[in-house]
Design a protein that fits this description.
Elements: H1 2-21, E1 25-33, H2 40-60, E2 63-64, E3 67-77, H3 82-94, E4 99-102, H4 106-119, E5 123-125, E6 141-143, H5 148-161, E7 168-172, H6 176-191, E8 196-201, H7 210-217, E9 223-227, H8 230-242, E10 248-251, H9 260-263, E11 273-278, H10 286-303, H11 311-328, H12 333-341, E12 345-347, E13 350-352, E14 365-371, E15 374-381
Parallel strand pairs: 1-3, 1-4, 4-5, 5-6, 7-8, 7-9, 9-10, 10-11
Antiparallel strand pairs: 2-3, 11-14, 12-13, 14-15
């Protein structure tokens, strides 16, 4: 009898404990990026930005609609592949996530956005810059960086007016991102009165560029623009050096990483590379500069790794999404989505607010070069 009573008391205690723990509302936030393949270092950088935000939110003890929340990060790998990207998106939808941060590449973000839209799940991309992403009319699609029209166009103008490029060659990797940013760069060159002398194509897995570089060498370019990622840009820079192509090398945010000097294996001359990131902090804004410096220090301490490119934007995207949930008093996508569309949030990357398409308002662009193997800011453009 005593044993039976103990069992009943124990069971009652478990039930009581369960009801106490049930008061914690679980909010699932998905993150998708390429954590395998040639740009896994960029995908991991993005995922770590999300993880840092989630860990800090859980440490703070956020409440939504009067209930204490436990945030869970559901991280998926899309390997930068559109098919794997849509499979990852469907998996997150089936897992009933409350929102998604990602994907990293435009080529995976665009097809995945339809899946999230059909499910009514808000998606904030921290790094997809192809304009098509927010031009499909999906109310669930947002981004916290400027798009390729701004990025490619600004670089094209810069190549003509500042670099003084007289014969400009363009190469792209045929991805949604690479081709998109190269097209906008070419338009920017023409609008500034410049001339392109050749357009060549490769792919995002290529390692040998001898044929296309030899073809361009005959045209004596003083600027070579590459639309693609750093994993391809590094070997391309090495082969340009081997072939004696002495030209400025320009590219978008895909090449603008801390890894590029390593991938180029020491063949980059100081100031040879000019790249742009969609985003940036004006160095004259002391408070914003300090917030970003503090973020980088915390990130390094937590992950024993330097920020590559977009970890701060992922971090801000998570916090922006959660701020909308808190303001709406609900983590249900249908309830907080209208609040997210009108949100104003001050993050480590600056002020975040979206226009009617879901694009960030007044998006910044930062130009960089490399000296002594280190990335150096050349200024912020809006």
């Amino acid at each position: 009898m005593q044993i039976k009573l103990n069992v009943i008391v124990g069971a009652a205690a478990l039930m009581l404990g369960g009801s106490v723990f049930a008061q914690d509302m679980v909010v699932k936030i998905g993150h998708v990026g390429p954590t395998s393949g040639g740009i896994a270092h960029l995908g991991k950088d993005n995922e770590n930005g999300a993880r840092m935000a989630i860990d800090e939110l859980n440490a703070k003890g956020v409440t939504i609609g009067g209930k204490k929340v436990k945030f869970e990060l559901l991280a998926e790998d899309d390997a930068g592949d559109p098919k794997q990207g849509t499979a990852a998106a469907q998996k997150l939808v089936d897992s009933k996530v409350n929102g998604v941060i990602g994907h990293l590449n435009s080529g995976t973000t665009i097809p995945a956005s339809k899946i999230y839209s059909d499910a009514g799940i808000p998606q904030i991309s921290p790094s997809a810059t192809n304009p098509k992403y927010t031009r499909n009319g999906y109310k669930t699609a947002f981004r916290v960086v400027a798009d390729d029209v701004h990025l490619g166009g600004t670089l094209g103008k810069y190549a003509v007016t500042q670099v003084k490029g007289k014969s400009i060659a363009v190469i792209d990797d045929r991805t949604a991102y690479g081709q998109g940013v190269a097209d906008e760069f070419e338009k920017g060159v023409k609008a500034a009165g410049g001339k392109t002398v050749g357009r060549e194509f490769t792919n995002d897995k290529a390692t040998d560029f001898t044929a296309i570089l030899t073809s361009l060498k005959a045209k004596k370019p003083d600027v070579v623009f590459f639309g693609g990622m750093d994993a391809v840009a590094g070997p391309m820079l090495r082969q340009m050096k081997q072939l004696g192509i002495d030209a400025k090398f320009m590219g978008g945010d895909g090449i603008c990483s801390g890894e590029l000097p390593k991938l180029a294996a020491g063949t980059m001359a100081d100031g040879q590379v000019v790249c742009a990131e969609a985003g940036g902090i004006d160095p004259k804004d002391a408070a914003a500069s300090k917030a970003m410096a503090d973020f980088r220090t915390k990130f390094k301490a937590k992950f024993n790794a330097d920020v590559q490119i977009y970890a701060p934007y992922v971090y801000d995207a998570v916090n922006t999404m959660v701020a909308a949930m808190v303001k709406a008093g609900s983590a249900e996508p249908a309830k907080y989505l209208p609040v997210l569309a009108k949100i104003e949030y001050k993050g480590v990357t600056g002020n975040i607010a979206f226009d009617a398409k879901g694009d960030i308002k007044n998006g910044a662009l930062t130009l960089y070069t490399y000296k002594g193997g280190n990335k150096e800011s050349m200024g912020v453009v809006r």
